[in-house]
Amino acid sequence: MSTRYFTDREFGQRPAVSETIDDRVWGALHALIDMRVDSGAFGYRFTEQCADGDGPCGSDLRAFARFLEAEVPGIDWPLNSQEVPETPVALDLLEFCAKAVGEPVLGSYHSYQHHHHMSWNRAAGLATFVADVNLLFQRNGIAFELDANGHARRILPQPVAQTLGWAMFRTGDEQLDRLLEYARSHFLSPKLDDRRDATEKLWDAFERMKTLEPGVDKKVQADALLDRAAVAGSKMRVALGDEAKALTTIGNSLRIRHSEVSQEMIERSEQLDWLFVRMFSFVRLLLVSSGRSA
Predict the structure, then answer these.
(1) What's the pTM?
(2) What is the pLDDT, as a whole number, of residue 112?
(3) What DSSP string describes 73-119?
(4) 225 with 287: CB under 8 angstroms?
(5) Is 114 left (phi over 0), alpha (psi -120 to 50) or beta?
(6) What are the average pLDDT values for consecutive 10-residue runs of the chain, which has 294 residues?
(7) Confidence at residue 10, expressed as pLDDT on a 0 to 100 scale
């Protein structure tokens, strides 16, 4: 359950625009994980057994550390609150912790070993961990969140979210459907490289669409597709033709579909958002106009 502070109620939530976990947020995440370590919450996956054989009694931190360093190679244990990891690595760490966490339920007290025997409520522990992480992100304008399963995902800018909300791909061409769904789903990834890959698949889908209409060659087929979207000879038809040429040029000049040294890498997330929305909107128009969309 999230907490709404006074400023949230009076002025609205802070826009989720930052894709970098800074030292302030990292310090809080570090403390949040330490609290789970101290409570034994990670014993749900990494269980320490009572030395007298009486059952679970907490977290096996040696196993936790060894698995963490193997599954999230960019992280060393113990965590250092002064060394902020790269954001994708921090998100991997949070997913690792989410997979291991449970709400400790204290059982009988073992006086000789000075500990309680434990069990874990997985659903409650995961829900609380997710809520605590998401509150930190929300209050600091971080454009990521953990979903109910503890998987990190990007919070999309509103224009991108509105565009990707249209996601019914029944074009009649199985390969085109796969390309479009791959592009849509992978553009939700927190990792910029995944979004670059999604953008490449979207450009591939556009090139494949050009060959779906009848015609003797690709140009004739592409023109026929555009003619389905606007009356031939109209100003709108001219504008759509110009847009198709512009998008093709972008795909060939920027590092989207090819990797020649002369092509420029798209470095900034907001630039990639703009390009993806521009192409996705155009593809949607062509699909709807040609009767290839639900």
Answers:
(1) 0.73
(2) 64
(3) TT--SS--TTSPPPHHHHHHHHHHHHHH--EEEEEEEETTTTEEEEE
(4) no
(5) left
(6) 76 84 97 96 92 77 96 95 95 98 83 74 97 96 95 84 70 92 88 91 94 92 95 96 94 78 83 92 91 74
(7) 84
In Å, how far are 47, 56, 112, 114 from 50, measured between CA atoms?
10, 6, 11, 11
55 strand-pairing partners = none
194: exposed, middle or buried (C-beta count within 10 Å: 0-12, 13-18, 19+)?
middle
Burial class (CB in 10 A: 0-12, 13-18, 19+), 201: buried
Helix (H, G, I), strand (E, B) or coil at 49: strand
Please tell me the distance from the alpha carbon of residue 90 to that of residue 25, in angstroms, as a whole number: 11
Tell me how far the alpha carbon of residue 106 is from its chain's centroid: 35
pLDDT at 201: 95
Task: For residue 284, count CB atoms less than 10 angstroms from its CB and return exposed for 0-12, middle for 13-18, buried for 19 or more.
Answer: middle
